[in-house]
Design goal:
alpha+beta, five-stranded mixed β-sheet
Length: 172
Amino acid sequence: MIRTVTLDRKQKPTEEQIKQIEEAAKREIVFDEDSPELTPAMEKAFRLAAKNRNAQKELSTIPNKRRRNMNIEIVQNLYRTAKIKWSTHCLERMQERDINIDDVGNCIMSGEIIEDYPDDFPHPSCLIFGYAIHHKVLHTVVGYDGEVLHIITSYYPNTIKFMEDLKTRRTK
């Protein structure tokens, strides 16, 4: 069973949370194809990426021109003019989920922004609610670096994570 708890940096874990962490530390780590064991080189790259991400997050608390809310008209214009980069993650997940490029395009062009992530790293991003070609509700996450639209992922939402309108995220 996976249990996720988010703590504020200033918040101390409860005794129960500490106990759960200690119990989890005793369990064997199971590696699989989604989470393979890291080679020393991969671990070094991962630690460097985490260090850079954390340094960038600290800088993002300072107001700057990088922090901005996304605008659906800009997103649609970038898509229309093909100023797009597709992440490998996105293309792999689209294939697994039987979502094609036209579905994502239709989602973006018919969509609306339902969540905005102005402090996302490495670019501000947002969640778009729209429709696939066959009129099924589709969510697409995109980022914008000031020049190019980055397609991060796309998926069919469900009522486990979203309310019946498939726009409002359920609270934990």
